[in-house]
Structures are given as C-alpha cells and as structure tokens.
Design a protein that fits this description.
Protein name: Glycosyl transferase
Helix content: 40-55%
Strand content: 15-25%
Family: Belongs to the glycosyltransferase 2 family.
Pathway: Cell wall biogenesis; cell wall polysaccharide biosynthesis
InterPro entries: Glyco_trans_2-like, Nucleotide-diphossugar_trans
Keywords: Glycosyltransferase, Transferase
CATH superfamily of the largest domain: Spore Coat Polysaccharide Biosynthesis Protein SpsA, Chain A
Order of helices and strands: EHEHEHEEHEEHEHHEHHHHH
C-alpha cells in the first residue's frame, strides 16, 4: 500500500520521547510516507536521537525555535503534491493519509482534509470533533464532508502548492490558533476545506505542554486574525465576545495587551476577506461564542 502522494511534516521542541514515539508510528504506516522533521532548537538531544534511530527522516535544524514557521521551512523540502502536518505528540492511523489523498485527487477544488482526532490513551473523540462534524457552513454539493472555516494542523492534509501560494503560517502568530489566518487565506484563494470522519489521527497530549502560554497565544492570535481579515463590525463584535468569554486572569490580560501593542502592524497588513468568505465566517461566529473546544477556553 505504499503511497507516494503525501509527505508528513512534524515540528518539535524538547519533546524527544514523544517525537520518537510519533516517528515510530509513522514508520509503521503502510503508506510509507516521507517524513520531514524540523527540530525547533531542542536542547534535550532530540536531533541526535532522530538521526540515530530514524536515519530515513529528513531532519532540519534551524538552530532556534521557529514555532509554526518550522512547518514552512519543512514544506520547502516537500516534493509530493500533498503535505500532512503532524505534531510530535500525535500520529496518523494506517490508511488515513491515502484516504485523504484520494479525496484531494477526486476533488480539484478541495484544498485540505481534516481527520477525526482520537485522544489517547482513552480512545475517545477530542471535543473539537463534534464541532467539525456539525459545522454550520454550507458547501458545494460535491464536497465530500462538512465544510470548515479553519483546520487543525495536527490532523490535516493540504495541497502543497495551495499552502505555498497562501504563504504558509505567519511568523507573527507563532503557535496557538495559527491555522485560522492561513485557512481564511486558502478560502480567499478559492479552496474549500472539509472534515472527513472516516480518517483518523491519534493525539496523546505531551506532559511538556504549557497550556497557559498556548491559551494566551490562542487569544492573541484570534484577535490578530480578526482585525487582519474581518470587516470592522464583525471584528468589533468578535473582540467583545472574546473579552466576555475568556477567563479573567493574567494570561488573558497579557494576550489582549500583546494584541493591542501590534496594532500598527495589524493596520499595515490588514486585508479584508472577499465577501463570500466573510459570509461563511459570520455563520461560525455564534458557535464560537459557546464553543468548549477552543484553545483559549479554560
């Protein structure tokens, strides 16, 4: 079942045990995908361990932590039509990469396919799965699953050329909700995003995860995306909704302060989305007010 259509890209930072487990799972896939790892400046021997135990993996060592931009660096080396992103604490199920490639082959206007996320070791659905299945967005009749307004990098296969044309992940956003801006730009380029329930990714959250920092970045990046791409009224409405719903703590305060401090950059880079894309995002706004799966809640 070797499948030459998809390369898997993984970014990592000081999570050697989790990364080695993930690479072991990827090495066992029947698709035998090429794998590119960007080691974001790890100091725990990650790069040495990868080179020793997985010599077939293409290992990039930029020497510093690039955040999500480490994926951009890896995609420069991708020669396959599709690229699957994978976190160092997640891995794709056998056959799912091929299944996503089949959908992309079949539908030329489809830009990305997001898989079901199973939380390990319990084997339960991630809370975000219900929201993906029940997406309120209308899509064209040919779309093979629910239309999405964004995607989850750890569980998504994208067209490599579409990713490059859209500019990849923004270096400003780092990590934490960094997908939303790229997803909107993909939609503005005419691509559709979908969810495929029959494809799966497993996620066993790393113990090294800094949940507070990730939540802070999630709030900040949501605000940045909102003012970079949304018209003034929806942007103001979403900002007020966010202010009412996030935890009232230091992390939230810092997130709003960082977002406000970047106002000159935001105004300089602001590019409002086409009407048809903005109209889809407006349909998502009510669900986002009550979502329990957003990164910045709790």
């Amino acid at each position: 079942m070797t499948d030459p259509r998809t390369t898997v890209v993984v970014i990592t930072h000081n999570r050697r045990p989790e990364l080695l487990r993930t690479l072991g799972e990827l090495a066992g896939l029947p698709e035998e995908p090429p794998v590119v790892v960007t080691d974001n400046g790890s100091t725990d021997g990650t790069a040495e361990a990868v080179a020793r135990r997985h010599p077939d993996v293409r290992l990039l060592r930029p020497g510093r932590n690039l955040g999500a931009v480490g994926r951009n660096l890896a995609v420069r080396d991708v020669r396959t039509p599709y690229v699957a992103f994978c976190d160092d604490d997640s891995w794709w199920s056998p056959g799912s990469l091929a299944g996503a490639a089949d959908l992309l082959d079949r539908h030329p206007a489809l830009g990305s396919v997001t898989a079901r996320i199973i939380v390990e070791p319990d084997g339960t659905d991630d809370p975000i799965v219900r929201e993906l299945r029940d997406s309120p967005l209308p899509g064209p009749p040919w779309l093979p699953g629910p239309a999405l307004g964004s995607f989850l990098a750890a569980a998504t296969v994208l067209r490599t050329d579409a990713f490059r044309t859209a500019g990849g992940f923004s270096p400003r956003l780092w990590l934490g909700g960094e997908e939303e801006l790229l997803a909107a730009d993909l939609a503005a380029d005419g691509w559709w995003l979908t969810y495929a329930d029959h494809l799966t990714v497993h996620h066993r959250a790393s113990a090294a995860r800094d949940a507070t920092l990730r939540r802070m970045h999630g709030i900040r990046n949501t605000l940045w995306f909102t003012w970079l791409r949304r018209p003034v009224r929806p942007a103001l409405r979403r900002t007020l909704d966010l202010a009412r719903t996030v935890p009232r703590d230091t992390a939230s305060l810092r997130a709003f302060a960082e977002a406000a401090a970047a106002l000159p950059w935001v105004l300089r880079e602001r590019r409002v989305l086409p009407h048809e894309v903005e109209s889809r995002l407006r349909l998502l706004d009510p669900a986002q007010r009550t979502s329990t799966a957003r990164r910045y809640i709790g």
